[in-house]
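Quick one: structure for this chain?
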Amino acid sequence: MLRERGGGVVDAALLVSAVVEPATDADWCRSELGRLADAAPPQAGPAELVEALRVAGFAGARRTYYEARNSALDHVLRERRGIPISLAVVVIGAAECLGLEASGLNFPRHFLVEVEGLLVDPFQMRVTTRDEWRDWLRREVRSAQGRLSETDLDAAFRPAGPADVALRMLNNLRMLREVRGDPDYALRLTDCQLALQPDAYALHVDRADIWLALRSLDMARSELETALDLADGEARDAIRARLAALPEEPGVAN
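Got it. Here's what it folds into:
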């Protein structure tokens, strides 16, 4: 797994890129990140790097946001367009080439980056502030008739390691496949996720839903039983309820 091999965020993104585009040229991607770093001003800090990437043309793929190729680092580097998390990898990779400390933040609904303590919105390729994103998240939650505590808001800026980045990118791809009615491919993506996080009970619950979409009751039950073994607390109660709600006869009733 990524944590065990000591791989970084760029390595994680390249693994996902190879899922989307098997012909991904990992060496070219790493070289391109180095070239982007070299194009920044001498002794560039985080703000100068972000501006250099913006000038180089990196921006959000607004017109093609829901295309799988936006999760492929090779494509993002060539086309200068991507979604927040894939553009974040570009920022992190270039920052690391400059010797700057950079990490992703697993912010809900919009991945962010921190470079030397400076917050960056990779989709708009600009420096931003935590207060701006706290306000944004408050509005998002309020529109869904919910509320967030200050503790919740602070927790929203949790760091994302390499495995977290890969899992979130794979989640994005899985969502696209499920929406487009391709449960077989979505199931294969969960195989990749389980390789990164084998003890994640929630992944087995997700797989149960996919198996139900594929009309395989036995496999759905097996996934829920595995999830039950891995879960604890209230999650176990919810999984037991799911198991009890499954029909006894084979197949899914219409």
